[in-house]
Amino acid sequence: MIPLSFSGFSRRLSGGSMGKKGEVMQSIQSKQDLCLWLSQFSHPDLIADWAMSPSVVTITANQQVTIQLPFAANTLINELSDWIAKQQASGAVAPVTFDIQVKPQALETRVSAAVKGVKNIIAVTSGKGGVGKSTTAVNLALAIAKSGAKVGLLDADIYGPSVPLMLGKTKAKPVVRDNKWMQPIEAHGIATHSIGYLVDEADAAIWRGPMASKALAQLLNETEWPDLDYLVIDMPPGTGDIQLTLAQQIPVTGAVIVTTPQDLALADARKGAAMFAKVEVPVIGLVENMSYHICSHCGEKEHIFGVGGAQTLAAEFGLSLLAQIPLHIEMREDTDAGIPTVVARPKSEHTQRYLELAQRVCASLYWQGKPKPESIQIQWVN
Fold first, then answer.
1. Which residues pair with 324 in a beta bridge?
2. What tens digit of pLDDT does each residue of 206-220 get?
3. Count of structural domains within the chain
4. DSSP string covering 361-382
5. Is residue 84 part of a domain?
6. Could you tell me the pTM of the whole model?
7. What is the per-residue pLDDT for 376?
């Protein structure tokens, strides 16, 4: 009986012949052999030879193998652990303990100034309003948290801050420390901040570009964020001066563009992709929201906004179509109630789509990026 532990809990496996240990070790005699063997496990969110990446696999003196996936990926952990268990049961690998963990790595950005405590920033944007960008941002942040990461959410939609309503925090006000540092509002397990926590929506809506940009810079840099693997930013819709300024000043690791299948929305999403290319911010891919409607009575799918538009746009820019999220009355009811779908309906088809999106976003972000060198704390001795 062999213990196999992962992601904070363990599973004990038994059954099947383990083979002869000496025979197995003849084929896996080094760390490189082990990494090559592990790389036989393939998955859409992994690259070839993924286990050969630096710091992913380590072997301790007592022959325990630690696998640290460098992005949020609890679903992937379950699949990998099952694969290893089957290989062990068949005698394809020596009977050792595998410890599989999630340890998201910080990635380099074009803007060198980092946000204290934040490893990676994911900007969720859209070329126009009304495509479900904020709903996507909220559920994406919650899904990443469920995928094994520490997550924050910043509502930067200065002209329509809807995150407080979606999270059921319309009455929340942040505590301010030392007359400067705002404490984020905890909601459903993530740290959040929004201009909606500070001012009335009517007041924020009349702000001009420079005032709005300054306010958002303060929200980002004067919030006392806890240590975060990912900060998801719900960006203002559009591709004007404020969006361009934010993209240039914020150390964004990657952007997700939300659109619908409609031609008008796709035209604006095309402008968004061009804007991020101009400021050298990597676009992780597209999310086609309201991809189809699911009838609440019969369950029939209907493509009321068209078919295949986001896929065509993704191909045009060489991007990935990350997800196609359906339109369903339950999702609207959940956000109106302040309990987003990922929390309200953890077993639903919609939540599964968001969980797949979360892992795909974090995986693509890592494989497309360049890890930052880990800082080393040095203590000077007099």
1. 288
2. 666 677 778 888 889
3. 2
4. HHHHHHHHS-BPPPP-------
5. yes
6. 0.87
7. 52
Q: Which two tokens stand for residue 315?
A: 């191909």
User: Could you tell me if residue 63 is left (phi over 0), alpha (psi between -120 and 50 degrees) or otherwise beta?
Assistant: left
Q: Determine contact, residues 59/30, Cβ cutoff 8 Å.
A: no
Contact 353, 325 (CB under 8 A): yes
Interval 291-314 mean pLDDT: 76
CA 263 to CA 306: how far, in whole Å? 8
> Binding residue per annotation — 148?
no
Domain membership flag for residue 375: no
Report pLDDT for 302. 72
Report yes or no: 317 and 273 within 8 Å, Cβ to Cβ.
yes
What secondary structure letter does DSSP report for 30?
S
Nearest alpha-carbon partner for 120 in 129, 130, 128, 111: 111
Amino acid in position 97: T
- Annotated binding residue 129: yes
Is 134 annotated in a binding site? The answer is yes
Tokens representing 200 are 């009335």
Q: What range does the domain containing 270 cover?
A: 118-368
CA distance 374 to 371: 9
The residue whose two tokens read 């694969």 is: 83
